Amino acid sequence: MKEKKSHVIPLIIIILLVGLGLTYYIRTTRLNEPLPQTNSTLANKIDNQKEKETAISETIEIKNKNVVGSYPAITGESLVALDARADVQNFVREFQEQADAELPELRSEFPDTYSDQTYGFDVKADYYSSNATRSIVLQKYIFTGGANGSAFYTTFNESNNGGRITLNDLITAEKRDSFVTMVKKRLMNYSVPGIGTVSLFPESIADIEFENLTRFAVDNDDMILYFDEYEVGAGAVGTVSITIDGYKDLISNLAVNENDKR
């Protein structure tokens, strides 16, 4: 009997040691496993994916008996992509409806002028991003007869933290008067690369208020402001845009509005 017990005890010890070894291995393996993604990590991953997906892709053309035009395909699920895509779709649909409603009557009433006439449009898009924002700029041109068409801008801006943004979100109230003054000075000295100084309408520039500055984009450290055709200059000038390099530093150095000084 003593001999049997002497064999059993070492066996039990071996089994215990093996069990302890397995337990240590499992616990160590779990500790080395990557931590589960938090909501914040997942949000950043999704946000980065949206950033990668947002793009201006191929040009889509329309040609029918009433309308000839083109517009860009905008891909991605970022807020600016969704807003810009919906805007383009609505613009194309409404322009087609306008042409379908007006041209048949015009052709009937003025066959010599409108028998072969179509309405035309062209939409171009630019996508910009910075560490804190995303922007899509649409430049639209329409022609419905006459000597010239007209061009205008629509812009879409969002914060990378989520939500649409306006200049109110980027420029504090006490700096807005100084910002407008700076914009007016730049417009009064407006120049075009390769052409030089271009004269705009002084009276139109003088009437600009902060609330009028609704079309803008942020490209890295620069801010671009847009003005429609005829808004601040003659039709020959076309649309106007000015770029404010290093806008954050510039705005931080602007004078505080007189009414906000204490």
Principal-axis shape equals flat
CA-CA gap between termini: 101 Å
How many strands, which pairing sense, and closed or not: the largest β-sheet? Answer: 5 strands, mixed
CATH class of the largest domain: Alpha Beta
Q: What do we call the CATH homologous superfamily of the largest domain?
A: Fervidobacterium nodosum Rt17-B1 like
What share of the residues does DSSP label as strand, in percent?
25-35%
Give unreliable regions as ranges: 28-38
What features would you highlight for this structure?
alpha+beta, 5-stranded mixed sheet, 3-stranded antiparallel sheet, 262 residues, Actin, Chain A, domain 4, 42% helix, 10 strands, 2 domains, single chain, Heat Shock Protein 90
Explain this structure to me?
This protein is of the alpha+beta class. The chain has 2 domains: 55-163, Heat Shock Protein 90, CATH 3.30.565.40; 166-262, Actin, Chain A, domain 4, CATH 3.90.640. Helices cover 42% and strands 26% of the residues. It has 8 helices and 10 strands. The chain has a 5-stranded mixed sheet with strand order 1-2-3-4-5. A 3-stranded antiparallel sheet has the order 8-9-10. It has a two-stranded antiparallel sheet with strand order 6-7. A hairpin with a 3-residue loop joins strand 3 and strand 4. The N and C termini lie far apart (101 Å).
